[in-house]
């Protein structure tokens, strides 16, 4: 093996620099590396915050659209009620029936569904009792629908108003635990 020649090694180190200078340079490089790492961490956090903000805005946008759609549907329910009334009382209903069917198809495509009532058991999540009538049917069975109820994307936007079989002395609104537990 060759022995290291100290003279050759010392010649390669510039005379203006002492042994302390390379240590200071290394310390400086380490500090800059730490600072760069800190900047990189900040950049990653900002990117994550921005991604979360984008998701938040997208969710807000969807919520606003759903609310606007719901508001429109609620307003159109009045038109649907007028159609229902006209179809019940008019003798010549073919033109009105076609308009009604066309409107109903559009509303269904946009997520509107009727709440089923007649011959169903009363469900406080979908129905509102407006009257209790003695009947041969089992208590709690819906006898008649006074006003249709509707759901938009599986959320009730108007409860179906119904007449239920039962005894007059039964209270359709039992309050338990501070909640309105109807029928």
By secondary-structure content and strand pairing, the structural class works out as alpha+beta
Distance between the termini: 100 Å
Taking pLDDT < 50 over at least 5 consecutive residues as the criterion, the unreliable ranges are: 173-183
Task: Report the sheet-strand fraction.
Answer: 15-25%
State the total count of DSSP E strands: 8
Main β-sheet description? 3 strands, antiparallel
What is the arithmetic mean of pLDDT? Answer: 81
> What is the count of DSSP helices, taking H or I runs of 4+ residues?
3
Shape descriptor reads elongated
- Spatial order of strands in the largest sheet: 1-4-5
The count of domains is: 2
Helix amount: 40-55%
Would you list the SSEs in sequence order as H and E? HHHEEEEEEEE
Radius of gyration, in angstroms, nearest whole number: 38 Å
Description:
The protein is of the alpha+beta class. The protein has two domains: 19-110; 114-176, Nucleotide Exchange Factor Grpe, Chain A, domain 2. It contains three helices and eight strands. The protein has helices spanning 6-12, 20-89, 94-109; strands at residues 112-114, 127-133, 142-147, 150-152, 155-158, 160-165, 173-176, 179-182. It has a three-stranded antiparallel β-sheet. A three-stranded mixed β-sheet has the order 2-6-3, with no helix packed on it. Strands 7-8 form a two-stranded antiparallel sheet. Helix 2 (20-89) runs antiparallel to helix 3. The longest helix is centred in the first third of the chain and has 70 residues, at 20-89.
